[in-house]
Design goal:
single chain, two-stranded antiparallel ribbon, mainly alpha
């Protein structure tokens, strides 16, 4: 007996569909691509570009990598989606979730992340005057210098090696 699994396709509904075991794996890809895109935007902002121009340039720079990751992931699970054996019936809903999650990630990363970044920058500009922001940045630079970090490069010592934070003492 076949019934609708709630995924928009007619597959055998099962416990795996309800538990969504694919979402943690998919969220890792989404977060990674978004973080890399935001880092590219921040690099362009530090170079003196406007928010919108930096977001556009970062999207152009990361377009190929984001597109390839999403499409290859989608194509990679297509054989599982089209499988007709009885053993694969319980995995098909998970494969559908992963495949179309990768495609929606493409849209989210290339459109939604830069838009939200620009909106948050506008909100920050409204909340912080230039003087408050300059004071905040100076405090951040001083704290980074005390720890031996380069504030603009985020995480490297002034000498160029990666910074390590001391762990808890036993």
């Amino acid at each position: 007996s076949r019934r609708w699994s709630g995924r928009g396709s007619q597959t055998a509904g099962d416990i795996l569909t309800a538990l969504h075991p694919v979402e943690p794996a998919l969220s890792g890809v989404v977060v990674n691509e978004s973080l890399v895109l935001v880092e590219f935007v921040n690099r362009h902002r530090r170079a003196g570009q406007s928010v919108l121009n930096a977001a556009r340039e970062a999207g152009v720079a990361r377009f190929q990598a984001i597109m390839l990751t999403s499409i290859v992931s989608f194509i990679g699970v297509l054989p599982m989606i089209t499988e007709t054996s009885i053993q694969a019936k319980f995995l098909i809903p998970c494969a559908i979730s992963l495949a179309f999650g990768c495609l929606s990630n493409l849209l989210n990363t290339l459109v939604l992340v830069p838009c939200v970044y620009a909106i948050l920058e506008d909100i920050r500009a409204l909340l912080f005057t230039k003087q408050k922001r300059a004071a905040w940045e100076n405090e951040e630079r001083e704290e980074a210098a005390e720890r031996g970090l380069d504030w603009m490069e985020g995480g490297e010592n002034v000498s160029g090696s990666l910074a390590t934070t001391p762990g808890p003492t036993p």
